[in-house]
Amino acid sequence: MEKSIINGGTKKKKLSIGVSDFREIITENIYFVDKSLFIKDVVDGMKILLYPRPRRFGKTLNLSMLKYFYDSREDNSHLFHGLVISSETDIMEKQGKHPVIFLTFKDVKEETFDVCLEKIRTTVSKLYREHQNVLLTDSLYTEDYDYYKKILNKTASQADFEESLKFLCQILYEHYKSNPVILIDEYDTPIHAGFYHGYYDKIVNFMRGFLGAGLKDNNYLEKGVLTGILRVSKESIFSDLNNISVYSMLSEISADKFGFTDDEVENLLVYFDSSLPFSDVKNQYNGYNFSGLDVYNPWSILNAIHYNKLGHFWGNTSSNNIIKKMCHEADETVKQDLSIMIEGGKVKKYIDEEIIFPELYENKNALWNFFLMCGYLRYDNYDVNNEDEESNAELSIPNYEIKALFKRKIVPTWFNTSEKTDEIINLAHHLVDGNIEVFKKEFTEYCLTTFSYFDVGGDNPEKFYHGFVLGIFACLKDRYQIRSNRESGLGRYDVILTPNDPLKAGERGIIFEFKTLNEARGETFEKSIEYGRRQLVEQKYAQELQALGIEEIVSIVAVFKGKEVRIGVF
After folding, report:
1. Are 559 and 528 in contact (CB under 8 A)?
2. Cβ atoms within 10 A of the Cβ of 2, count?
3. How far is Cα 500 from Cα 116, in angstroms, rounded to an integer?
4. Got the DSSP string for 383-445?
5. Whose CA is closest to 28, among 14, 18, 41?
6. Maximum Cα interatomic distance, the chain, rounded to a whole number of Å
7. What CA–CA distance (Å, rounded) separates 215 from 236?
8. Which residues contact 286 (CB under 8 A, 6 or more apart)?
9. Residue 406: phi, psi to the nearest 5?
10. CA 50, CA 67: separation in Å to the nearest integer?
11. What is the pLDDT of residues 380-412, one digit of tens each?
């Protein structure tokens, strides 16, 4: 794998954030992490290529680099002098040989379909304006001229706009006598917006027609390259294409062409004389797994170097609306799994790249896939051949930056009204402040009035209760460390609350043990509470807290039967 280089010249390069135009980076002496071998991956690849990656991982810059590599309308060969790709003689013979159709949908995030479609029409119209010199061609048929002008003036029908990509490809071929290259950045942004704002089916139908016409059986096309966050192929947007390859974060091909590697980050820190220790930068921002390669988010790295601090940069570049909405409406098993990951644990899930938006609220696997592909999770031990099992990978939160994002913006959405939030906060503080009887009473009432039988049904209700309790105590994160399913003593406790300042007067350690009542086995609330108490003692769950010097330890056994709960405190 190639290390990043500083291309050309002796003048020190500038650090620039948010510049995604390849020519500007090269000509304005901006530091460029050399990903130019991405061009070789594209030239040697299939006719249609899709590269799904999370936002801010260099997708737009890579497409811009392809644009200047292929574009035959001006001489851009000097931009590639000194880059790794310049030594690939066979590949460089392709440079400057094709007209390029480049469009981006990254700003198409409208609230209604009509406005979304108008934004797309404007985007396509600008694309036609960029290439309007073809109207000067003497051999252009009158009907083609009229069609072109209708798209240019935005007077064409929706059906005409769906055919506009293919038509432009044909006209450019006839004008330049060379097959065009189509580059589409963030193709799925309108689909995200459609899903969030309720016009999903309409936008999918349009994009299916628009992309299908331009990419399927297009004899005028040299190459098509798309980027986005998701694959969304099962919506049939790409299902009819037999000439497409998808290279996601699960693929070895181009794994090092998006995001920064360890070597590239170290080179950046050294070049810009950063005082940030590499180990701290690694803990804060590393952790993304692209087919076995550890990768950093470039946006976070460049901002950290610029501001010379380890801040929360990536999470502030988007509203995270879909993620917050799904977390807010998720059931307690999802919240429990997220809580486990927030506390540093891993959960086993089934990974399938083909996201189907309508399934996100019905199929938990689809939800976890969405989190992963959007850059909120990391995967490990992925078994691509394990198609019949319920899980084929381990998921975790990649780094401190994303963990902080979950704690600041996701966990607070788990309680949907200010009234309930106040109630939850009061519950948590009653317990840690020693108002045990008040806690027992209000906790019991809350379960009866808030739980539904749908929540506590299923084969593993303890998982629901577990997630519910973790959610309650999320408001104490500034005062307590909340951990779950960890080993202590001779066993594994359910939930433990450890004071951030264990020796502070009045601070208590809290241990929770959950039990689900099974009356078919002759269990009673009293017997189950006593069984839980013995388990706490015999398994020495308090050992971890005692080792920290915590004198007051409250052990709680909570026994649930549906919406009913009985609590024993020891």
Report:
1. yes
2. 13
3. 49
4. -TT--SSS--EEEE--SHHHHHHIIIIIGGGGS-SHHHHHHHHHHHHHHHTT-HHHHHHHHHH
5. 14
6. 93
7. 13
8. 262, 265, 294, 295, 296, 398, 399
9. -60, -45
10. 16
11. 998 877 766 677 899 999 999 998 888 777 776
